[in-house]
């Protein structure tokens, strides 16, 4: 019995029992997975195989006033890559094949990665911006998005576990910014595991590569690949990395031609993860025409990602308006995205369509501009500037004028009775298709639009040689604290800068019609008021003293009409001083309030026409135009005082460092510039003096501060003493000058007090500023858009309209969603008699023998009025290769004005050169009337505009 029992439990039966137990566990697990957890794992499997393929909505169409299409969309074909386990495993093989197909068919990968390599194999960043602040912000954002901040944080603060303080974060940001493009490239080589391109044969080899630095890995890669090829793979890896933040979505590799898409369709089975899709691409049928108005589209910058994410944008793929109407009406134009939820297989290929949401196109924007007038304005502007450059140097009654740098300019055309903008041109311009067409914005083109140090340096070297300047590159394009060069003297032509809405220029004599309005309406002159003009203004010596401003006009008996025709400075100096003296009749007996009122008389009228705005008022500073703009200011006491106080520290530092204030005795050179190595006490002492000066000047206009000299001087002495006590540099200078410390301190305090109390305060209260303002000099600066608006306001009888570019908004079916009517901003009183005199004087400027624009306009059959202006850039402009701005404003017809035109030519030398451009605009605007007159046009493109109408959007690229 025992023997049988023992045989029953032998090793064989034990093995069988164990096997039954194991199979039982497996069977139980299978039942658990396949039955009990079936629904959960089915959902998990479905989620992994599902993809939402977004479909971008077509942007709304932009039309001109006659329904011609200025911006639309065309269907393009794109190659995309979807990350799956299989596609990632064969990533490099797939990319090799994809790159070859693209190359064989003349296609390029979509390269938006801002880390570039130039022809000399040097690394650099290209962020498609020019201003230093944006460059720095985008540089830091790029590196943070790639995780470089974590690496540098561990290096800088190895023991830090809590959040960084504000100071520590600033330190980290500076370290990130200074991390070189080359080191960033090495970091990305390492971060993206690009050693996989070497196809390691074993785990040990993989570990060896993983232990290497990015620089070492690149050295190995360069044995088999070119640097450009390595970067191509990095571009795709980087796009996948950036897209991964938004979930599993396809990455666009290239936008291709239709023929190329067929080749990819045939090869899809050999290309895991690759697919072909269609996408709308922004298209501008007329190329560069109206580019300053339309703007362009581009990728979302790192600095604005959060804002657009909140609005539902996919910041890794979506394009937004970056300037002009495209930007200002982004929310109107963008439309609503659609997409399809699909199932994909292991290769990332669609196997089933589960759900589709149709995209909804954006709404359409109808502009006020006329494409034909726009074309004439742009072409004539370009031709005029090119013609001036060919003339090089001309000699006339004003002397020698160098026109070789007449490379920038603007034109604005406005309806006088509505404020509608019919044309707005800026030169140089750009083709917005370059920004919307994938791959079109090459590195070379980008440098033209977004110049870097190298472009400024090359330009400056050539400019200095060509102009014969005694300057260096650093003089013309100085570097800021981050080493980025800045165009301080506005020399470099900027295609993306809208000179029409952003370019602030002195108006010169085009301001004289405004002075006429003010003087006539104030009753200090009449249309018949006549004065004997001379070469030098010699009246009102109580204001000008021994200074005699020069008038280039021919001396003669001059009334208002002739003063406008020949642009007499003498006449308008006198008109301005008469206006001032109406409110402050005596320099000695008039109150401060009366003097300030007199100084503001021109501004009182200018503000009502849109030339600046009251700094103490509630009026909105702007023309009302829908796109971004600068808004310049006219001379007025408060603004002039504010500008002076803002600059006072700069002047104070310079004079102290030179050891002499204007017209005063020399002092021991004094260091007032704040330096990084200053002690806290020294820095505080320097700041204290500067604040004392500002506080004293802030009282100008409320009292005569000349009575404060003694107290101000006494207060300055201990403040200067503090600088001496804490500045080894100042102490050494005093010692070298062989004077006592007390003498040096007292002398410096006295000269600072003299400068502030007498020189600066006297200048602030001087009526010479209103005299210079009356002829468009001094602090007056305006945009061409402001100038055309002011002329429209004057010649229509005093009604200021809001400038506007948009007539209406329509939906995809053409239904009007919103319409914009002319809007009156304010009105200015101009009597009919005064207005008639001003218009007649401006007509004489265009037609009379001595008229400043008559050489161009005198034979034009439609009556018009005009005013030229020649305004200096700065007193020493020739030292920097600059010439005067050439400004011209005009309107037509004379009796019933319909349109006004303003032209500005940078370094154009004379205003009348702009009359040629205005004439081209008139020929286009009045072409039907002119044809009926059998008029022979000056330009072959004006009476019969060459641009064909485009009223239907193309659909395929």
Task: Summarize the structure in words.
The chain has 957 residues and is an alpha+beta fold. The protein folds into 4 domains: 2-36; 50-363, Penicillin-binding protein 2a (Domain 2) (Alpha-Beta Complex); 368-430 and 499-567 and 598-632 and 780-951, DD-peptidase/beta-lactamase superfamily (Beta-lactamase, 3-Layer(aba) Sandwich), CATH 3.40.710.10; 639-765, no CATH class. It is built from 39 helices and 25 strands. The strands form 8 sheets. Strands 2, 3, 6, 7, 12, 20 and 21 form a 7-stranded mixed sheet that branches. Strands 16-15-25-24-23 form a 5-stranded antiparallel sheet, sandwiched between helices. Strands 1-10-11 form a 3-stranded antiparallel sheet. β4 (115-117) and β5 (123-125) form a beta hairpin. α7 (148-156) packs across α8 (166-178) and α31 (709-726) crosses α33. The longest helix has 26 residues, at 11-36. The chain is globular and about 135 Å long. It starts with a helix and ends in a 25-residue tail after the last helix.
What are the main properties of this structure?
957 residues; Penicillin-binding protein 2a (Domain 2); Beta-lactamase; 7-stranded mixed β-sheet; 5-stranded antiparallel β-sheet; 39 helices
